[in-house]
Amino acid sequence: MERGATALVLLGLLSLSGRWCGALPLLTTQNGKIVDGDGNPVFIHGIAWFGFNGGATMTGNLSAGFDAVSQDFKTVVWRIKQLGFNAVRLPVSFSHFADDPKNFTMECTVPPPASVAATMVPPKKPVLPLSNAALPSVADVPFIPPEAWTGGLATSMLPGTCNADLPNDSTRNRYIWVVKYLINEGFYVNIDFHSIGMAGEGLGLKADDNTLYNTTLWVGLWYDLLSDVFEVAPEAKGRLLIDFINEPDGYGLTWEGSKGIDSLTDIYITVMDALWPICPDCLFLIEGGGQVKLLANWGNGFATDPAVLSKLKPKVSDASSFFIGTWDKPYVNQIVLAPHFYCPAVSGANFGYKPSLGQYQIYNETFGYLTSKGFCYKGKCRVYAGILDEFGSTFEDQKELDCWRGIVDYMNNAPGPARDGWHGNITSWFYWSWNPDSIGTGGMVDPINWRTIEWLKMDAMTGGTPRFRAGLRLKPWYLAGFQPLNRTGNSAPSPAPVIQLANAGLTPLEKYLMIAASPFAGCAVASMLLFALWAVGWCERAPPPEPDDGESPSEKSTAEARHGLRGGMPTSENSIFLQWGTDEWYAAEAAEKVASAAQA
């Protein structure tokens, strides 16, 4: 009887937790693929958005630009969603949690929702199959309450308060709030420990977060952060990727350990042992290291073949200890290998940046083989899932184009040299970055106002253009196959109507014509009209290649340590309008299109 009662209690606990014996975690891997709890494939198409890790105390840069399109966090999130991204990599530094949060709750200029939507219209008609939408969903543009509301129509620019509900009590609480908001908006979130600067050969050299050198302290900080995330956002279960160490080479880490620094293997196993009990549905992203001599970019470096490791003297670090040490761990299927691939503008490499110069050989030897053949131990081989955790380019010269095309073909296992049998498809990725102030890659928006979308980069990820034949299956709102993200939780923003109405009796045409009466909103309506015609017929991060200060390869990289702006004036909505050929338009035809668009 007692055994029966115990069984019933256990059964009840399993039922409450949703966990049955043998049930999959909500997010996990199977046979080298990322899947959900039902075994369905999951494709992470993400973008990095840094700021918390560099003293900005928020995602950057909410001070840029001239209105809510770039200055309001929720509006920027809406824009990222419309571009088809379903995940955000959110770099963080534990040391910067101590920074006093900067105040981004501020008066800002609020354009009408239709004007916000117009910023998402590409200047040229894609050759790929189009969606049925004439504009992104205007009803989903976050509503920013005007500071002074006198009634009537919000058809022109209004003063409002951007980031009105952004926490200002602490940077740490703000970070957790951002994680929760993104998850509530339907995103996966990559919590990425990402120090600014490099540790190099000496402890603390240039790095601004040295907590990693005290493994016990560092693991405790991870544990506390995730515990608080789940307390505030229990809906985060199955939506988190944990990127433990951005580019371990920057800390001088190796798989074996050296010079009084714990081994990369021990650090990873210690933190996963601690976090898995509270985060069994999290994916654990593992970046490699200690193999720069093999031309493995920072973040890459998983080679285990003795013949490969012995190419250079002294022999490079061997990742075998990690795979052996995690072989029988209960969380082994939560492990995802997360290398970084970069082109010459970032890596400074003159070799290995395109297929004819050994690009695929480097990728295969240092990472790719684990996604195909796998790591073999105890008479068995285990294939690992991979996610390209960082990559990006400015596409400024032929080297960059050749390298990018090589990366895309490699990820797609495209026919030709890329389909070499040594690696699997890499269907999940995080593009670096939304922020444009990143040397060697730039960002997804212009570097002056952080407003105009860099459509060349969108072409590179969607494919289907003469310059970028193949893409990475990104589906923005204007392409067939776009899948709007489903909101979760209860903190989603209140959707705004096309215009805020005091008089709700206007017809759709009257509403659009009233918007057109606003000088600012006129460009939005023009963009809508031109898009109607279109629908029916139409880098971080780069160290200099050869630093002249004598620094070592492990000191030469990462991210925001070397940020700088790239020039170039943004393209306004008006210039997009001109690119579509306004000279061919006549007033009568425009009015007809207004009516057609408004009544659709």
TrEMBL record:
Membership in a protein family: Belongs to the glycosyl hydrolase 5 (cellulase A) family.
Keywords: Carbohydrate metabolism, Cellulose degradation, Glycosidase, Hydrolase, Membrane, Polysaccharide degradation, Signal, Transmembrane, Transmembrane helix
SUPFAM superfamilies linked to this entry: (Trans)glycosidases
Top-level taxonomy: Eukaryota, Viridiplantae, Chlorophyta, core chlorophytes, Trebouxiophyceae
Signal peptide annotation: 1-23
Name assigned to this protein: Glycoside hydrolase family 5 domain-containing protein
Organism for this UniProt entry: Elliptochloris bilobata
GO terms, molecular function: hydrolase activity, hydrolyzing O-glycosyl compounds
Basic and acidic residues: bias regions: 553-563
